[in-house]
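Hi R.,

Here's the chain you asked about this morning:
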Amino acid sequence: MSERDDEARTEEPTEKKTNDAYERGDMPVSRDVAVASSIIAMIVAAAAMQGDRSRAMLFDLIAFLDHAGDARLRSSGDWTDLIRGIGGASFVVLWPPAAILVVASLAAAFLQNRPRFIASRITPDWSRLSPAKGFARLFSRRGLVEFAKAGAKLALVSASAWLVLHAAFRSIVDMATQDPVLAPSVIQSFVLRLVATIAVVTALVALADVAATRFSWRKRLRMTRQELKDEMKQNDGDPAVKGRLRSLARDRARRRMIDDVNRATLVLVNPIHYAVALRYVREEGGAPVVVAKGRELIALKIRERAEMEQIPIVENPPLVRAMYDAVEINQLIPPEFYRAIAEIISVISRRTSA
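And the predicted structure, written out as tokens:
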């Protein structure tokens, strides 16, 4: 991505853009979280190994070495029993710290992003074996930034470890003149301070890296104004397409309305600008119903269909104009039109009977 493209990407990524990135497996992941969780898990595992559990392991080891000569190893079954015994005793002692490490690794992944299966991430990509592309990735801007971040983290952790070592240097030197029995406790205290310091520094670095990783990820997903407009068109539909669909829907509605003129019993016209088709059958009960109406070209089509079906056509410009604005299709006419329509229906009935 060129520098000019970065400058053009000024809009924050939409929810669809971020969801698409997640579906591709492109999600913000900080490797430092896994490192920090592993170090903290090792401290917790070391604490779990202390006390009765570590002493039991030590006593089992001493007993095994003391009676090593008594072991019968004359057949494959003897070897199997020996390995099974050692493995069982080791499992009893080591499963808690192993479980802690596994839980810490899973937590480091799940706390950053919701777990999801991405088939494309496990599909072999032979292009990654290209030395040229690997060299380009290594010395790309992103690669150089990652290298600088790794160097800064290493320098920070090294400086913290050096400070702990410098503070404990006198105690370590004094061990040469002290009772050797005290050496393990001094070493244990020093190692504990060193590991705890590294764990705290790594955790702080991981928190900072999480924020930086997410910021960089959202910045990389930023969109140009044109991309934002294109996505809105995709979500809402292209205005031209939507207009065409509305036009087709209106055409279908008009055709259905013209077909409904066949049900009319009379048509009011003005004489070519407006037309209202009414249906009134005494046996059906109720007031007359407007089955179709239109103006200009639609009015002409209604009149043509009425002439084709030999439906009575009555010219009454004031009435048809007022009724056109007051009544919708498939609605009963309002009471104010009852008298006028009744007179027209009466005239038509007399003509028909004559």
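The longest strand covers residues 289-295.

Let me know if you need anything else.
M.
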